[in-house]
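Let's study a protein:

===
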Amino acid sequence: MQSVQRLIGTELSLFEEKFATSVKGSNVLLDRIMRFIIRRKGKQMRPMFVFLAAKISGGITEPTYRAASLIELLHTATLVHDDVVDSSMIRRNFFSVNALWKNKIAVLVGDYLLSKGLLLSVEHGDYKILEITSRAVREMSEGELLQMEKARRLDISEEVYFDIIRAKTASLLSAACAAGAYSATQNWETAEHFRKFGEKIGIAFQIKDDLFDYGAEQIGKPTGIDIKEKKMTLPLIYTLQHADPATRRRIIYIVKNQSTDRRKVDEVIKEVQASGGIAYAAEKMQAYKDEALALLQENPDSPARQAMEDLVRYAIDRKY
């Protein structure tokens, strides 16, 4: 990540100032919540992808800053809404917005962030960038609803799983890359090239999260959360596809009826580990990462491309 900071550290600092200005609230309560959100922001990986895609494509422009702000506003809005949907009280080791201000306010805060992003683009005429990101929001909603529908029956095939994560997780990262490229070039073909690149990284990124839940890495957080929430992730899907009928029935019964029993969840985790589900998912993750890097290397070699390669490796090889 040092190469990323060296190359776009100044731009990221300026972005943070612009982002803080873009979310400023119009009343005391809203302003307090916005300050709370800004202080607890994550690694800002998506803005990094925006800036590096722009730098590779031709150079960072003023629309690049707006594209990064739009992506971060949409991302933050979806996190606030997700915490309401999932009844989650913790976000990044802090209380979530809904935990502190209740669901009604959290939903309205998410709506506010979404509207600020839309207005930021409309007021500056960034209609193509708005189109790119609006598609991502639609796909994220469709992916979430598809996952909810399938969770009731636990009948997700590998093909459907990839449909879900392509829409639910990869769409926003692919939009970040496409928006960054378009902000530098106003070229739809270049934006599409980076959209494909970002989609592959997003898929690999989600598989990495799947692996964390099965203890593939020691990250200091509980395992089995996806099982508890009845989420069918790639390691579990592989295990069910290759288990004998009796084992398959037992796993499905546990996920459906005993997912709050820690010992039963550990049983499923051990079964997934023994079946080769972890190794299979890791292999798929590596394949998507390699495909993304191959797409990236179609661009001329440059410090920006090298920094993007480092960011890709960080995103996929991370330990937490």
